[in-house]
Design brief:
- The structure is a single chain.
- The protein has four helices and no strands.
- About 50% of the residues lie in helices and about 0% in strands.
- The N and C termini lie far apart (about 60 Å).
- The protein is an all-alpha fold.
- The longest helix has about 35 residues, at about 25-60.
- It is a peripheral membrane protein.
């Protein structure tokens, strides 16, 4: 027994019955929401790890031209690491916050 070839795992979204105003109202929904958030955080972390490995590979392959050839991978990696990870709550927002879009005034 195992996973069928070509089958993808389907992740449920956040629970429908979770109330952010009163999270302790339904303890089961609160635990499902916590599991959902942890699962999404782990997915983001693993995506960043994959991109980091691609950057390492590109750096080794391209050698002296890595600044031009790997730039797009480095930007993807840096964007993927914004706001993810564990224990970043006490760092300055500029170091780990979401990308701030410039607004035209």
């Amino acid at each position: 027994m195992g996973r069928k070839k070509g089958a993808t795992l389907v992740h449920d979204g956040p629970p429908d019955d979770f109330d952010p105003e009163n999270p302790y109202k339904d303890p089961v929904a609160m635990l499902e929401m916590r599991e959902y958030l942890v699962r999404e955080k782990w997915i983001d972390i693993e995506k960043a790890k994959i991109l980091r490995e691609k950057v390492k590979w590109c750096y080794r392959v391209e050698g002296i031209n890595h600044l031009q050839k790997c730039r797009h991978l480095v930007h993807q990696y840096l964007e993927s690491t914004r706001g993810i990870g564990w224990g970043k709550d006490h760092r300055p927002h500029a170091f780990h916050g979401p990308k701030v879009e410039a607004t035209a005034d």
